[in-house]
Design brief:
With 375 residues, this protein is α/β, with parallel strands linked by helices. The protein is built from twelve helices and four strands; from the N terminus they run ββαβαβαααααααααα.
Length: 375
């Protein structure tokens, strides 16, 4: 079989390129070098004749397509003709593959599109709520099994998560709430001074921190820190098929992965909330002693008169509920991870958003409930 070759002839301002032989991968290197030297300067049109080709494969077809593309880019008209039907079909496929993808049409927004997006979001939210409620039921049944058989509780895992999500979270929670106490006291003094009631900043700091700010900000920090960690850890295990391996061993992933994290967080968050309350009150006391004429001992005495155990317990009761919500959502999204690391990142973000949403919703519910009950 004759190796691939071509000849060029000039006809006025046009060039005729006649290809012959076998334009296959064996001749591609030689043809490539010769085609790059093709003298097309001054030509207005190049006619590529393929009638004498004896063989053509994808490498040869790509060389023809590239030559045509480069000539057109230089402003030279190109016409290809004479190819056998089989060669023409292959060449057409190669040329189509080399074309850039068509630009997506510019989206046009209509009212019907907005309604459709809204409906899709509502259906997605409904499915998400249904699946979360189902997961909640599965967790309750798992807790019931552990209550009947306490020996199945994994204490090593429980203590490990207590350290990771309780003890290790104390520095960031303490610093944040200390600064929050300072801000509340400073802003409170600044506003109450207009009415000559700066001393009531003690009531403001004590009640707002114990009832709302301490548990709420601690829960927000834990949702971003621990809830996301739960999703990422369990999600990575899903990607690596470790959760399937746990099921293969005859173990329940809820008992092995979910409940130790959930119980640990329900123990850790109330303790963190108490610590956060103390740090916020300390920050408020420091700012109050700086801003108004009271000593630290006087601040504590006024605080004792302003707040009661009811205020303290209103905040503390919320903590285990918020911990349960954060842990449940984090583990739920982790168990939903499928296939890739992209899914881990997306559902980790979703877990944090859902946790914060539920914490705020339940905080509002508790506020209304305690107000209705007179606490």
């Amino acid at each position: 079989m004759t190796a691939g070759l071509f000849e060029t002839a000039r006809r006025g301002e046009d060039i005729v390129l006649t290809a012959g032989g076998a334009w296959t991968i064996q001749a591609a290197r030689t043809l490539d070098g010769q085609l790059r030297k093709l003298a097309a300067a001054g030509a207005k049109k190049v006619l590529i004749v393929l009638a004498d080709l004896t063989a053509l494969d994808t490498a040869g077809a790509w060389l023809i397509a590239r030559t045509e593309r480069e000539l057109r880019a230089a402003g030279i008209a190109v016409d290809i003709g004479g190819a056998k039907p089989g060669h023409q079909a292959l060449l057409s496929r190669i040329m189509e593959a080399g074309q850039p993808p068509p630009l997506a049409p510019h989206p046009r927004f209509h009212l019907i599109d907005l309604v459709a997006d809204l409906g899709e979001a509502m259906f997605h939210g409904g499915r998400q709520a249904r699946d979360l409620i189902g997961f909640f039921g599965a967790v309750i049944f798992a807790i019931g099994r552990l209550a009947r058989h306490p020996g199945r509780i994994r204490f090593i895992s429980l203590v490990s998560h207590l350290e990771l999500h309780g003890l290790d979270a104390m520095p960031i929670v303490g610093i944040l709430l200390f600064l929050v106490g300072i801000v509340i006291a400073y802003q409170g003094v600044d506003q109450l001074r207009q009415f000559g009631g700066e001393i009531y900043v003690v009531n403001l700091v004590g009640i707002s921190v114990l009832r709302e700010m301490g548990v709420l900000i601690s829960s927000i920090v834990i949702a971003g820190r621990s809830g996301s960690a739960f999703t990422a850890q369990i999600g990575t295990m899903q990607v690596n098929e470790e959760v399937d391996a746990i099921r293969t061993l005859g173990l329940d992933p809820l008992e092995v992965l979910v409940l130790p994290r959930m119980i640990a967080l329900m123990i850790a968050l109330p303790l963190l909330t108490f610590f956060a309350n103390m740090m916020a009150i300390l920050g408020g006391a420091m700012m109050a002693t700086y801003s108004i004429d009271v000593t630290f001992a006087q601040f504590l005495d006024l605080l004792n008169q302003a707040v009661t155990l009811t205020h303290f317990w209103v905040g503390m009761i919320k903590a285990p509920v918020f911990a349960f919500l954060i842990a449940m959502v984090g583990c739920f999204e982790g168990m939903r991870v499928r296939g890739s690391a992209e899914s881990v990142g997306r559902l980790t973000t979703q877990a944090v958003v859902e946790s914060l949403f539920l914490v705020i919703v339940f905080d509002a519910f508790f506020s209304v409930l305690f107000s209705y009950l007179g606490y």
